[in-house]
């Protein structure tokens, strides 16, 4: 019987990233997808800074930055004129190595992930569907339908459902998916066009007309239009063509369409699964949570799910942790998903709300406030921190402990950079490690050496203080670069107790 360590259902970005990280850790994976080929009509565009930080661990970040497009500004239009601009170039200066807004379309993104996965000898099994599965004493037995119509029974230690909003895995787990559906029909079009809105920046129409955003793509005159369709047209979404969408918003942005490469319509839901886990089966990505496209969070959140789950599965499968470590996946990720759905729902409802008051807020108040907000560094930084996901943290959760400086257990390690170096360089290795900024004790040096735990001691510099790091304390970092322990002492017994309490034995070589 065909057996793997982890069977992954769904080969979108979430499933592919999970397969990549597990493969890097030496885990035997199998990944299936019901489609015949990778998607070509994708909606996700933004690769957020936090995702790029984590992609350094697979040498993906620089490839994406090199082949994608950095957006210099967001422009807001009313009555056919640009009325406000929010500069985005280097908006996250000093917070991350990727202090910009990066556009890299999902179809290209998926192809890159597929190619990297094939480097590990893993290929997506296409036109293969999961029909059902059941848990056994030592794993999961899954029933698959193969491309030729034959059924295959296979086994895995764990099963991961990254199979989208209509997830078979979620239905098999009988996990509720509460939430709702927006009344608007969305459309997405990849176009060749000209006009002032095709200048490589982001443009949004705030008028009473249908919502429309113009996202720049790499290449002269290439853009992706994402808009809404209201009124009676929404009742025939399946038969809509590009000629049916409102020309009013497109004309307001002075977009002159020269060619439409593809066009698609879809509905958007805002839902979070009641549970992200059932025994040996896990939900991640759209199978676990779906929300509006506001802020470009969906794909990035699914990738975050995958990385969170990957190192924990790898630790358990390799004997580096007890199975109870897997309990932390749902705790950490479901809390963020619920907050995200609530936030994006409020933003999207404001942008697309109908009625005189909503129109006044968008067309009069927003153009007045946006430039003033953009003029304050604190406002720009808050916006970037929120959208880029660098503020995502697991404070107060089971794997997070202590405080040192301004950093809490569960935080993303702050980035500190000056002419002398970058404290993120050691994070390219996805393993447990200890960071010290300043001096540490002989006991800490000896204990880490004895237990083969990488210890990085940085000479104290002003950049570390600016980043909020504590002098002479220590930070124990998880393989996903979040802080497990923040402690102002130099006592290795704190680390020893942590590992014992959580059933973790992290003393394995970095992959």
From TrEMBL:
Its cofactor is FAD. The chain crosses the membrane at residues 6-23. Coiled coil: none annotated. One of its GO terms (molecular function) is oxidoreductase activity, acting on paired donors, with incorporation or reduction of molecular oxygen, NAD(P)H as one donor, and incorporation of one atom of oxygen. The keyword Membrane applies. Pfam families: FAD_binding_3. Residues 4-342 form the FAD-binding domain. Keywords: FAD, Flavoprotein, Membrane, Transmembrane, Transmembrane helix. It comes from the Bacteria. The keyword Heme does not apply. Signal peptide: none annotated. This is FAD-dependent oxidoreductase.
């Amino acid at each position: 019987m065909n057996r793997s360590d982890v069977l992954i259902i769904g080969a979108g970005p979430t499933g592919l990233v999970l397969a990549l990280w597990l493969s890097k850790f030496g885990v035997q994976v199998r990944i299936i997808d019901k489609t015949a080929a990778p998607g070509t009509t994708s909606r996700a565009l933004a690769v957020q800074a936090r995702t790029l930080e984590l992609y350094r661990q697979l040498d993906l970040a620089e490839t994406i930055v090199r082949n994608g497009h950095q957006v210099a500004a967001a422009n807001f239009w009313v009555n056919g004129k640009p009325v406000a601009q929010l500069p985005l170039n280097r908006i996250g200066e000093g917070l991350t190595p990727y202090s910009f807004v990066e556009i890299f379309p999902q179809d290209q993104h998926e192809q890159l992930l597929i190619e990297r996965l094939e480097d590990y000898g893993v290929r997506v099994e296409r036109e293969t569907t999961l029909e059902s599965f059941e848990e056994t004493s030592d794993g999961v037995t899954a029933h698959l339908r193969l491309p030729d119509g034959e059924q295959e029974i296979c086994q895995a230690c764990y099963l991961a459902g990254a199979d989208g909003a209509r997830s078979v895995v979620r239905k098999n787990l009988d996990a509720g998916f509460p939430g709702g559906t927006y009344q608007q029909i969305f459309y997405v079009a990849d176009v060749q066009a000209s006009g002032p809105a095709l200048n490589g920046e982001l443009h949004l129409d705030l008028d009473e007309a249908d919502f429309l955003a113009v996202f720049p793509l790499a290449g002269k005159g290439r853009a992706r239009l994402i808009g809404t369709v209201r009124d009676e047209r929404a009742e025939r979404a399946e038969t809509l063509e590009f000629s049916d969408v409102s020309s009013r918003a497109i004309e307001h942005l002075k977009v002159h369409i020269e060619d439409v490469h593809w066009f698609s319509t879809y509905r958007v839901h805002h839902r979070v699964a009641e549970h992200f886990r059932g025994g040996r089966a896990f939900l991640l990505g759209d199978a676990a949570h779906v929300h509006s496209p506001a802020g470009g969070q969906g794909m990035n959140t699914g990738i975050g799910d995958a990385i969170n789950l990957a190192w924990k599965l790898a630790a358990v499968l390799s004997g580096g942790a007890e199975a109870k470590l897997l309990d932390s996946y749902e705790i950490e990720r479901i809390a963020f998903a619920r907050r995200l759905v609530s936030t994006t729902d409020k933003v999207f409802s404001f942008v697309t709300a109908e009625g005189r008051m909503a129109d006044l807020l968008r067309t009069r108040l927003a153009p007045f406030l946006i430039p003033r907000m953009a003029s304050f560094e604190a406002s720009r930084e808050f916006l970037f921190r929120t959208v880029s996901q660098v503020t995502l943290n697991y404070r107060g959760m089971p794997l997070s402990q202590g405080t040192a400086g301004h950093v809490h257990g569960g935080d993303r390690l702050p980035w500190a950079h000056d002419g002398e170096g970058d404290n993120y360089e050691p994070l390219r290795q996805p393993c447990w490690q200890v960071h010290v900024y300043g001096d540490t004790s002989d006991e800490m040096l000896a204990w880490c050496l004895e237990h083969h735990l990488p210890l990085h001691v940085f000479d104290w510099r002003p950049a570390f203080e600016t980043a909020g790091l504590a002098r002479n304390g220590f930070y124990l970092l998880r393989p996903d670069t979040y802080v497990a322990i923040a402690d102002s002492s130099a006592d290795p017994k704190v680390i020893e107790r942590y590992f014992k309490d959580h059933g973790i034995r992290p003393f394995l070589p970095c992959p």
